[in-house]
Specification:
alpha/beta
């Protein structure tokens, strides 16, 4: 575990560039965060629920189906940013949105900063390295969005770092989108009887007129 690694007593083999005591006292166990993509996002959400040492969590286009039943009904206690693609939870879209809305509702009631930011112009694989390494191939296959993958990744990284910096530095208040990624104040989106922050960041080129009126957008 991380405590053993930073103490120089790793219980598992480490890559050569991390072995030989290079990680001793290099991890700040008071500033832990978790970031994951797809199934990995669900793993991070669960880990942060079970271990209060985590101070922030980011889920990249989370696949929520694998979550245990009790976890789907849980109240998240760690500030969490969900970044979603145009094809959010494409294998379980309606139920996935219900689980996500439940997280938002319960966190709002418990004053935990849990937010959803849709990065328009991305698909599920834009949250991995593959489209950056082979953009033409993955875009032609339709598994990456129409946005230049490097540009999309830059926006994703900017959102990640801003959210983590906000909460790991214990900045008061809820997270707000970086100024360079928004044209106006974050809007509220009403679902049933509750209101919670939802934002849209638009990157790249679009043909979907339904996005024309989206707020909190900027062309990168």
């Amino acid at each position: 575990c991380l405590e053993h690694i930073t103490a120089g007593d790793a219980r598992v083999p480490l890559p050569e560039h991390l072995a030989g005591g290079k990680m001793i006292n290099r991890l700040d166990m008071d500033q832990l965060s978790a970031v994951g993509h797809s199934f990995g996002a669900s793993t991070c959400i669960t880990a942060c629920k079970q271990d209060e040492r985590f101070k922030a969590c980011v889920g990249h286009d989370a696949w929520l189906f694998p979550l245990a039943g009790e976890m789907m009904q849980a109240t998240l206690r760690t500030p969490t940013l969900f970044l979603t693609a145009d094809t959010f939870d494409m294998l379980w879209p309606e139920e996935g949105k219900k689980v996500l809305d439940g997280f938002l509702l319960r966190s709002h009631e418990d004053n935990v900063d849990v937010q959803v930011v849709k990065v328009v112009g991305t698909k599920h694989q834009n949250y991995s390295d593959f489209p950056v390494l082979a953009p033409d191939l993955l875009m032609s296959m339709g598994v990456a969005g129409p946005t230049d993958p490097a540009k999309a990744m830059a926006v994703i990284h900017r959102l990640d770092s801003a959210f983590l910096d906000h909460h790991l530095s214990q900045t008061p208040g809820i997270f707000r989108l970086p100024e360079e990624l928004t044209e106006e104040e974050a809007t509220t989106h009403e679902v049933d009887s509750w209101v919670r922050l939802r934002s849209v960041v638009r990157v790249g080129v679009f043909t979907n007129d339904s996005e024309a009126g989206a707020k909190n957008v900027v062309s990168m």
